Amino acid sequence: MKQGRVKEYQMKINKTLLIALFSLLASTLYAQNAAKYVFLFIGDGMGDNAIYATELYKKTLEEPLALEPMAMNQLSVQSFMVTSSANSLQTDSAAGGTAIATGVKTTNKVLAMDTTLQFNLETVGEKAKKAGYKVGILSSVAIDHATPAAFYAHNKSRHAYDEIALQLLTSNFDYFAGGGVHNLGNIKDKKSFAYQLDKSEYRYLTSAEEIKNLKKGDEKIVAVNPGTYSGIEYYWEIDKPKESLSLAYMTKKGIELLDNEKGFFMMVEGGKIDWALHSNDLGSSIQETLALDDAVKVALDFYNSHKDETLIIVTADHETGGLILGSSTSKGLRMDLYQHQKISEQEFERKLDVLKKLKRKVSFEEVLDSVATNFGLGSGIKELELTDLEKEWLQVTYKKEFIKGQEINPDRDYLDQSSDKNFTERVIIIMSQKTGVAWPTTDHTAARVPVKAIGVGEDYFKTSIDNTEVHDIILKVMGIPNNK
User: Fold this and answer.
1) What is the arithmetic mean of pLDDT over 402-406?
2) Containing domain of residue 396, as a range?
3) Is the residue at 188 inside a domain?
4) 138 and 54, same structural domain?
5) Is 74 exposed, middle or buried (0-12, 13-18, 19+ CB in 10 A)?
6) I need a surface site. Which of 86, 109, 118, 295 has the fewest CB within 10 A?
7) Nearest-angstrom CA–CA distance, 297 and 71
8) Rounded Cα distance, 178 and 163, in Å
9) If you write DSSP's letter for every residue of 7-50 in order, what string do you get?
10) Which CA distances in Å does 69 have to 310, 363, 442?
């Protein structure tokens, strides 16, 4: 071989070795900076204006020098995400959750299955578990509800609660927390959740003492908040009883249980934000958003001690209500007036139901006194005074419900919104008018939602993304193969 060709050959070898060396170095550096811990917070229905309204509410109630922005608004990256499903620009929670969890769009009402309903889509939780990470799924609503279910269950219908709950028991995930399942069933029925739970390795805990006594090393846990409606979903934050454990506490307990040498993936949903927005009940939405933000604070505290190996993401599966801040019919935006709302729409409906069932006549004035006590409307606060027209409008439904016997149903489906507004719904509408907000819908919209991030891989969120990209980014930063 001639000397020139030998030299050329040696240069090629050196170049190949150099490339290999750089590749090895790059992979080593990547491994060192991979996300060991990933927190994914989903505020169901939580649009940008819902967050901003909550921030404004905080600002009006706190001393300026003591004001601290919401934790989610302190994350390094503040961007947006498109939420469309495979068959609609307006996604529901099942398809929205599926897109985030699997990186694939599906049709509305479907959980982690493709649009043909022939194939299951593997979720980021399932992939993380398979890769050796511990996995936690938390929600303030039933754990077999659409968004949490999208991370562990596969079903053509989000409403197949019995089937979905059984898949929880075969998920092999380490920690479920928050709400319970829709139907425990009878332990003697082999098809029931109760029977299968008894045969499984999972512990279904429903007392504060049991949950607080959990310690590192405890596995296969379903921790149901003792402060729940019928063992299913959290009480509204604005109404919650003393025994209720916060979403922030459940998140902190999750860190304690899931922390290990390999790492963990944790999804935390603020589910009742969406329910409040479906009812256009901004006062309750604000409190639910603050509760989710408290859970984000817990993750941020953890991040501050693990900055080189943690990623926190805060986003929503879709926007609900189309909240408008500053309506033309108002005297200005007054978020501070929501401090006078002491109760959720649903709980106020319960109070009315109790009044109605009394074995005596309940006067319109007595009902108005309850409105004043619980919302401040007509209580003497200048900005919340009721006009004669507003009183007449309320009296129409008072007569229907308290004299003519129209049903008061506090437990109706939150999606059941009639154009003929009942008494409580009218109170909420008046409250919106007084505070200067407006609502074009009680349903989901196609609006983009916020996506906020801090930590390893945060740069991937700096531009607007599609909801399917959340799954892809999480796997990339965790170093888990992405086999869709």
Assistant:
1) 86
2) 324-438
3) yes
4) yes
5) middle
6) 118
7) 6
8) 19
9) HHHHHHHHHHHHHHHHHHHHHHHHHHTS-SEEEEEEETT--HHH
10) 21, 44, 28
